[in-house]
Amino acid sequence: MPTARRHRRPAATALLAALLLAGCTSTVEGTASPAATSGSSAPTSTSASSSAPAPTGQVTPAPEVGPGTGAEARRIAAVTSLPVTVSPERTDSCFPSGPFGTGNSIDGIYFGDGRAGQELDRWGLVAGWGNCSQDTADNATLVLLTEVSDPESAVAAADALNEISLDFGGAEYESVDLPELGVSGAIATGGSDSAGAPTDTVQAWVATGRMLAYSYLDGPAGSARDLLVRQLQDQISLVAGFQPTPQDQVPDLPVDPLGLAGFALTTPGDQTRFTGSYDLEGYLRLAIDPTVERQLLSANGFAGAYYRTSYDEAASLDYAVSLYTFPTSAQTNAVYTGFAQLEATAFGGTPFALPAIPEAPCFSFQSSSESFYQRCYVGYGSYLASIDVQGLAAADDYTQMNALLPQQRDLIDG
After folding, report:
1. Dihedral through CA 285, CA 287, CA 293, CA 299, nearest 10?
2. Residue 96: is the preceding peptide bond cis (ω within 30°)?
């Protein structure tokens, strides 16, 4: 079941760290956690065999997973469809989401029985990115965009994966013709969402060039099929101008083109797979409100961001540092003020004064009945940074933030 997250940064829950922890920035592996949407028929088949024969053409092997894989995944993020574009009411972000570098990592989080991962790796998976958004009744849209060997391999993979999809959830799934997309997907009817409204669940894979797009969503009974078509059409349109990196060039992709990593505080624990450099569109795949944040950042000359996340297992705390850069200090200040206003209004934060830096905009959120989340901002010159601490037992436990925010301030003030 997709898990809701109400805050901007995807490393901001202990669940994320437990499921997606990669250990370092040289890999984008994930670990197993099958996904299903509320009130829907989840992918539950336990057969690990693949339905497709071995490739007969020349599949270009994917490069070894490394820093370049993460960089390519973040390039893919920038052209991965945002569910809210098609379903504006699906404003709550959820899991699974983020970068991927192997079929196994995708299978472990999205599917859980090994077959989809085998197919993806069979056809030369290089990297991928996933988005997840849901409405207040837990109707979710999952979008996954992956890069494989070549256009012929993408078509073959889509055919095989659509066939496998019919077996997820057993007899409840039936084939559904999608001539608008040139494929047949899988549909399950008779579900209901958390508000009790009747729903259908539908999923499909579509090839477009070297890219392979997947969507899995819940929708009102009788209209989920058309919603899926619109979601995948949006994805196909968005990726039309994207140029996948040739496989032999992936290892040499720049992982920090703006040299921002040194200005982003290294937080406690092990870094997760989300750590890395993002352009505007890539960053917006991490945003609470992509529309509002796109406007704010674009209007102020946003040049790039470096996002560092970690999980401290001993303390059961998640950390995230978002470092943004702008051409001038005036633009930095405008975004500093804009984010502070958004946190207190649209994002629902409760302001507090941090003892270490009382003037810093700081906000707390209640993540669950027993867990709290803090976010604070500092800015200097062309740099704006925020620090998140998740998993606190009390909203006014400032121990971690009191130590971290001054360190981040010192990094960017020269």
Report:
1. -50
2. yes
pLDDT band at 93 (very low <50, low <70, confident <90, very high): confident
Three-class DSSP category at 215: strand
Contact assessment for residue 391 and residue 312, using Cβ atoms and an 8 Å cutoff = no
**What CA–CA distance (Å, rounded) separates 414 from 403?**
18
Look up the pTM and report it: 0.87
> Would the pLDDT of 396 be above 70?
yes
Distance CA 58, CA 147 (A): 16
Mean pLDDT over the full length of the chain: 87
CA distance 101 to 109: 13
Phi, psi dihedral angles at 300 (to 5 degrees): -120, 25
DSSP tag of 179? T
Gyration radius of the chain over CA positions: 21
**Contact yes or no for 201/187 (Cβ under 8 A):** yes
Phi, then psi, of 188 in degrees rounded to 5: -125, 130
Tokens coding 53: 């024969």
Distance of alpha carbon 95 from alpha carbon 49, whole angstroms: 26
Give phi and psi for 371, each to the nearest 5.
-140, 140
Residues 400 and 69: their CA atoms lie apart, in Å, by 32
Asked if 95 contacts 143 with a C-beta cutoff of 8 angstroms, the reply is no
Residue 403 reports pLDDT greater than 80: yes
- Percent of the chain residues topping a pLDDT of 90: 79
- 243 closest CA partner among 70, 76, 60, 123: 76
* Number of residues that this document lists for the chain: 414
Please check whether residue 193 is in contact with residue 224, taking contact to mean a CB–CB distance below 8 angstroms.
no
Measured distance CA(356)–CA(219) in Å, rounded: 48
